[in-house]
Write a structure and sequence with these properties.
This protein is an alpha+beta fold. A seven-stranded mixed sheet has the order 2-1-6-5-4-3-7, with helices on one face. A hairpin with a 4-residue loop joins strand 4 and strand 5.
Length: about 140
């Protein structure tokens, strides 16, 4: 499996809310960083525990907008929702010997644009935000 295929499989497992299956794609020394909150998650067990305990209003759904790969490095742009809360994650993966060894996820908080920029910009429909490329709805297979 190529690094890109491996990462797409990761998101397929996440779409199924099968966090244990997703963790089988990790190397023993797997590390996940969340720089926005300043957190580091080490290992499969911690990854599974956080995802199984994360407060949600229902099942998580993941829409993969982009998946770009160069060698062993893969970057994805994904929308995540539980039906009430919707978030965007930009994730960087490092793959070695067919396993994900490192992941860095950026979960930016949306915010209103500055008023002074209104003359120079146009508003993006929330349904379009960051989705200027073809989408892959993971729920549809």
């Amino acid at each position: 499996m190529t690094p890109k295929e491996l990462v797409r499989q990761f998101w397929n497992y996440m779409q199924a809310n099968d966090f244990r299956a997703a963790s089988t794609l990790f190397a023993d020394a797997y590390v996940l960083d969340w720089p926005v909150s300043g957190e580091r998650i080490r290992g499969r067990d911690n990854f599974v525990a956080i995802n199984e305990r994360y407060p949600a209003h229902g099942r998580w759904h993941f829409t993969l907008h982009r998946c770009l790969a160069e060698g062993d490095e893969v970057v994805t742009d994904v929308t995540v929702t539980d039906g009430v809360v919707t978030a965007k994650v930009i994730a960087f993966f490092t793959v070695r010997q067919g396993q994900i060894v490192r992941q860095v996820e950026y979960w930016p908080e949306p915010y209103e644009p500055a008023v002074w920029r209104v003359a120079y910009t146009e508003r993006i429909d929330p349904a379009e935000k960051g989705n200027d490329h073809a989408e892959t709805d993971l729920a549809a297979g």
